């Protein structure tokens, strides 16, 4: 349904896999039942967006507006949504809708829903001036906060939090790939009095310095052994060869959590690496409960994000900088 005013919105659109996004104007949509429309204030750029654009993730909706770390102000609501939400700042994450009826939804595991919709993948996302979202999957944010600083919390933070929960109650934790997610969850870990061990690309001494600045007990190259065996490790880098590396770094009974939605193939490895009751786990998507927990704890821990701001129309430059490792922290698009 189009807006009665016939207003237009601007967006950066993926029309063909592997091709640059295209700047377009579209009619401004009205929200349907259970939906809201946001005026986008900021949308962070996630590695998952890169996987969508580059074709690592199959069958995206095309044409597609990417982006799933959205901060915006509610400007219109559909039927069934209270009008009091108009004017509120909310955040919209990757998980945009679940069926509510499948085995997983009925088992408190909606992140594994059989019929989900994903923001910026199977439905349009936030690389735009306006976006439609399900009201039940949009989370209240601090109205006084900086929208640019808040945006990376909506995926990098949420996936980091779910990965940390999967890592369980560990004291020494390794973080492989010190980008948007790791720099957020490292702050949560140090606030919780855990010891953080940061692993970066061999040449990325700036990321190592940044990790130490955020309280890491140790920072080094991804192929280095930490000074002590770890209780758990989270792999944020989409590099399958880091799996055996991380397994070597954890103690018996330790856990290695793969925190990305896409990873290159894991190489063959000796059984001895996983023997000793070491566990290899993955993280898939998030739940609304994850969002409620994390946003509250991020506020208590006073998490701050490092961001690089790009105008909306420079989305391709932001994606390219992420693709080639030229970012420290997170890229954020601002309409």
Automatic annotation (TrEMBL):
GO terms for molecular function: alcohol dehydrogenase (NAD+) activity; zinc ion binding. PROSITE patterns: ADH_ZINC. It holds the Pfam family ADH_N. It comes from the Bacteria. It comes from Sinorhizobium sojae CCBAU 05684. GO terms for cellular component: cytoplasm. Residues 33-141 form the Alcohol dehydrogenase-like N-terminal domain. InterPro entries: ADH-like_N, ADH_Zn_CS, ADH_Zn_typ-2, GroES-like_sf, NAD(P)-bd_dom_sf. This is Alcohol dehydrogenase. Keywords: Metal-binding, Oxidoreductase, Plasmid, Zinc. Its cofactor is Zn(2+). Belongs to the zinc-containing alcohol dehydrogenase family.
